[in-house]
């Protein structure tokens, strides 16, 4: 029992540290005064302006530090959850996959008695954490089974390596792009096998090292907010699986006594299936670096472009009244994270340009939806774009 409690406290601290570092690396995302507009989940939600936005952001970071250093961090976890949910409602682009995972983990921990003696609850929390980590790898691998990953995302990921190889040597690595999804799926299942779990943890360790290399300073130097996330996932896998005992049916049955655990299993483990039918958001479905998420491009007239402030205008590309702003790229450059890849978010961002236009016809956005399951099975590529004013 003591070992279970120490593991939970260790995971709690790792989660808080990783969340702290990632939020700090994309600090502009959490502020209200910025060039990239806020995209609230509902229009009636107010915007938080300076200095209130900075104060709230500072409090969230302070709460995360308290979670790390206090032996009983429950009240700090609850306070962080309330504040984090408030910030998330005010901007959908804050719904990043790593932030979603940490919120779910903190939600489970908010009902945990860090000073109590309930071994049943400790076992159940560790079990649901195992299911969460396994679900991330399983759904992430399954999402990569699409033509865009093989022909686009995988070659781009490999560039820091293949740029130093001959053409013949590069061609010999093509098989890895096709095998990568299956390796991730197989490894996620092997985590729950007594015979293969240690090998699976080692495999995941090297997979994350690969990701950190190709996306880190020596590779693409891209999306640094996920670097702490990758290191945290390595730690979670080792703590939860490497020396763990086999999960029994009795433990699974006991875990369902806790409503918080049932909620997390539903939303985090099961709901991602709906993303294959475009009825559940990609970033809530562990759809990560798959090459199959929605995209949005804003088209504006020369007149509108001329009225844009310099901090926005720099992202406008094109000429002859066909100026375009790629929302994901703009968000990444401005806030340090990709834009939340859903149509409602892209549409909300597009609306912020109307104040620069004398007529709505001067602005529209081109939406490219992600491929559905039936399209993936038929080998479609994303060449059909939907125009929405």
Q: What does this entry look like structurally?
A:
The structure is a single chain. With 389 residues, the chain is mainly α. The protein has 3 domains: 1-117, no CATH class; 119-293, no CATH class; 295-388, no CATH class. It has helices at residues 2-25, 52-69, 74-89, 97-109, 119-143, 147-162, 167-171, 174-190, 197-215, 226-242, 249-255, 259-270, 302-307, 310-313, 327-335, 343-351, 373-377, and strands at 295-300, 323-326, 363-368, 386-388. Strands 2-1-3-4 form a 4-stranded antiparallel β-sheet. It is globular, with a radius of gyration of 22 Å.
Portion in strands:
under 5%
Anisotropy-based shape:
globular
Oligomer: single chain
Radius of gyration: 22 Å
Task: Report the major sheet.
Answer: 4 strands, antiparallel
- Provide the spatial order of strands within the biggest beta sheet: 2-1-3-4
Provide the low-confidence segments as ranges.
383-389
How much helicity do the residues have? 55-70%
Mean pLDDT: 91
Question: What is the H/E string?
Answer: HHHHHHHHHHHHEHHEHHEHE
From the N-terminal CA to the C-terminal CA, the straight-line distance is 59 Å
Strand tally is 4
The total of helices stands at 17
| Helix-strand category | mainly alpha
